[in-house]
Amino acid sequence: MERPRDGAGAQIELRQPPLVGRQRELARLRAALAQARAGDGRAVFLAGEAGAGKTRLAQTAAKAARVDGFQVLDGRAYSLEGGLAYAPILGAFGPLLRRLPPGRRERLTDGLPDLGRLFSHLRLPPPPSLGNPALEKTRLFDAIARLLERLAAEQPLLVLLDDLHWADPASIELLHYLSRDLGSLPVLLLGSYRPEEIDAARGLRALLTSLRRVGLAEELALARLPPHEIAALARGVLGGEPPPELLELLNTQAGGTPLYAEAMIGALADAGLLTRSDGRWTLDRPPELVLPTVVRDLLLERLSRLGEAERGLLDLLAAGGEAVRHPVLRAVSRLDEETLLARLGHLRALGLVAEEALGDEVVYTTGHPLIQHVAYGDLAEIARRRAHAAYAAALERLHPAELDRLAHHYRLAGPEVERGRALEVLLAAGRLADEQYANDQAARHYGAALALARQDSIAGPELLTLLLERLGRAWERVGEGAAAVAIWREAIEGYEQAGERVAAARLYRLTALAEWDRGQFDAALADFEAGLRALGEDGPAPELAELLHAQLIVLNRLGEYERSLALARRLRALAAELGSARVLAGAYLAEAHPLMSRWRVAEALAATERGLAAAEQAGEPLLLQRGHDQMSLLLYDLGEHQRSRRHAEQSLAIGRRLRAPMLAIFPRNRLVSLDLMAGDWERARRESAAVLALAHRLEAGRAIAGALGFRSLTCLLSGDLDEARAGIARARAAFAHGGRLDRNIFSPLVLVEMLAALEEGDAEGALAALARLEGQPATGGVQFRTEAVAGEVFVA
Hints:
Blueprint: H1 23-37, E1 42-47, H2 54-67, E2 71-76, H3 87-99, H4 102-109, H5 133-154, E3 157-162, H6 169-179, E4 187-193, H7 204-213, E5 217-221, H8 227-238, H9 244-253, H10 258-270, E6 274-277, E7 280-283, H11 293-303, H12 308-319, E8 324-325, H13 326-333, H14 337-349, E9 353-358, E10 361-366, H15 369-377, H16 381-398, H17 403-413, H18 419-435, H19 439-456, H20 461-477, H21 481-497, H22 501-517, H23 521-535, H24 541-558, H25 561-578, H26 581-597, H27 601-618, H28 621-637, H29 641-657, H30 665-677, H31 681-698, H32 701-717, H33 721-734, H34 743-759, H35 763-771, H36 780-795
Parallel strand pairs: 1-4, 1-5, 2-3, 3-4
Antiparallel strand pairs: 6-7, 8-10, 9-10
């Protein structure tokens, strides 16, 4: 498949992955080569799981050996050739013997007729029959040892033998015979194997033990790479800085295995999810799982060699998901203690299962994150459901308070469990996730509960409508605005049919704000009106306050500051009537915008500080985050950049704690502008690209347009006018509707357009950009800066 192209139309090319995290091992191999060159030969064995980088490390050492004048013989064993005698030896010596000039070949093989038993192309005289197979085998081993000596006499030798865990027993025996004389030869034998499969090659363990005992061998164990070295690997493959989302994905799924990380990067690039624009990489819509074919095949090959009993236990563990406690695994497996421990011990020895002591408990996981995915994916659907049903039953008895895990297994058990109980657990887990702001989990649990309720008709209309509202809230928090609106509109119908006017008004408010963020301005304004109609003039005061607050936010975005100021004061009066710190916080925060538009700075700051205090008193993290956003903006406009940064960072911390990616957009954009003011343009370009990628993943028009505005300003100040203008055009396309403009988004864009026109000496273009504000005021500092630039335009 042809790899996608980057933003400039060039085909994306990934680089050869660098050797990272193996400097100590490579230094030891170089030292072993130096010893061998001096006539002190030895054997070194690289031990590591599949994909650990054994072959790459060995080939790097071979390249260094060739530079130092070594002759390199390269052989390997293959899984399908384990029954072929001496296959890796033939692979190492055969190509060299075939390449040699006839005269040199004859000198090397002179008097060694037994070599003809292995290398038929040498045309040696047939060796005499000794009538004793064991003695003939000894003569063959001695002939190969003499050949090794003669080759080493010409130049130092490096003999590479890869994947020795698949070697036949005869090859292992021959290696032992050859290694006994290494100490007096300029020869380095470099072998590799997987420690979890050391006993698959009969005699390999005895070979290693024997050579270590006499001081002729050492072993270098290749551990998995830590996150910072996986980041260095990704940086080398991409030829640039990897996006944070990619590093998070690699650390979660590749598990420190270099081959897996490299294959995942290639798979994401081939799928068009990992793209490069303006020399920077972004990861669009990170998938839940990346499982390249080469990785899946490697893991399936390991699993295929398990016996039926061990594979069944591994499959059960894979269905368990996260770490599984010992009593739970025993209950699910229905094995007695002795049998369970024996099978777990075998799986641990193979590197397929890991155990950890957590206090008094012992828990089990698969040996690598992707082993779980591959083993689980290889299960039949009925087997999966029954495994999850078994886990649900065990957890109900042993750990009924672990709602999230219970819900996971009830959801995936399907009809194998009692549906009424499954619905109860899913609802309880969804509520708990809501309280903890675990929005992804809440969406998962509520979505499963809704599907179950609809499918089996085990819930009445009231519960269905409540589920729709909660699911929509979870979707909105994770940035899925379109899905949230669709779910909420269905819930509104249910509430209206049931005569629940307050609940309907609440959802009209939520859909209005979500539609606005998607750029659907008319739909948003219509929803506000529908909410007010649902409440009526004598509507309940708390929900009326919420609806007026939301409407006030939109009025500020439209630049209707006189109306918003009057509405904010009405809200303050309503808050006093209700005694609600929450309503009071919203009123004060909303009041600051129109005050700032009139450059009443002291009053705007005071209102925001009062809003923050009321939000603290109410314990409302969303309002608290909004207050920090507003303080950051006001202080930025006043030139107090250090204080502005502190509030932006506090806002970002709250957004991350709430696990709501949409809430990270504004503070990250503000930090970009602060980086620009501090002169750190490189960091600003890097971060603005990351924020834009996040906005695109969330598919939120308002967030995309805002991020494009900051990205355009960054490009402009970096001298990339074309990219700046392109960004402005894309922002307008992403978030423009009819004759209405969101002033908070488009006022800064006008400023960028004016600066771009000035940079090009186009005073008329700058005036045309200014005219696009259509006489509507911008907010605070943006208005001040726009007027300042307008003065420059008139002078020009």
